[in-house]
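#lab-general

N.A. 3:47 PM
ok so I finally got the sequence cleaned up, no stray characters, all 372 residues accounted for. can someone with queue access submit it? mine expired

B.Y. 3:52 PM
send it over

N.A. 3:53 PM
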Amino acid sequence: MAVIPVALAGRSYDVVIEEGLLDRIAVAGAPFMEGYAGGRRVPFVADTNTHRLYAAGIETDLGHRGFAVEWFVVEPGEDAKTWGVLERLCDWLLAIGVTRKDHVFALGGGVVGDLVGFACAITKRGCGFVQLPTTLLAQVDSSVGGKTAINTAAGKNLIGAFHQPSLVLIDPLVLNSLPDREMRAGFAEVLKYGLLGDAGFFAWLEAHGDIVLARDPAALEHAIATSIAMKARIVAEDERETEDRRALLNLGHTFGHALEAETGFSDRLLHGEAVALGMVLAARYSARRGEISTDGAERAARAIAAAGLPASLTALGLTCNGAALVDHMRHDKKAEGTTLPFLLLRQLGEAYVARDVDLADIAAFLDEELEA
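B.Y. 4:20 PM
back already:
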């Protein structure tokens, strides 16, 4: 078991990592269910997959404590992060009488967490929520830190709010039901923490990544806890990404979001896969600028490839050119006027924000990678 505090002024909360937590949700989440005593139903939001897997157990556990559950179920995938689904969710929360003192439970991956967090941020000007992440990617990244959002035609996560959860409960056992591809996609975000700020952790992942992916309990808990502890420190220092510190968590994302947009935000390229390839591109572009060594960049690429993640643009079979990918980047929410900051590497374990990147040079670099 590990308990990691996310220290924020007036809004601090814990991330609890323990096997079997989901089977004991009535106890683990008890402080945030008090308002539902006396017959009111506890609101849970899930996608169809997590609802099918865990609804019966949750209902039984809460039933033993005298609680009933009300479910709002969405389809899995990015299509749930839309204006239409957000509207339906907010209407549902109002219809069941959620108050500002209540908490909504988000059971699922990053899509469910983002959607619920944003709905709770704007419903009655803010009600509470508890994260119950069921994918590795959500456990180590999106469930912690308070970024919530939906997608629009203009791009990914462009409409949202900072709204911190009141508690994050992580049960590593739920990962046993996660498809291997989703597990690898989540592992990309674990690798990110090593690449951006902890060379020793990156080396540990190189040596033990296979057993993390095989869901070895001790290795998995170490990988999750180390990732969350790093994110918690960064969020505490720069909650709303007004400085460069929290921006480091976006390593691989500028390239990755462009690739997601080009592939239609579809199952053709999962978010974690896009981030993995984005990190390879960030490392290689850093080497092109004479920063990280070529050997260092290729070491990062090898670690990503060894995890079964995409490590070259040619493997995607894209028909676009570098300029088209750069056009997607211009809609990035991190854009500042006519410039776009890039997360690059000075060395393995040391990322930084570069504000002097020429987008024409990025397009030329991407053309080279597309032809490699």
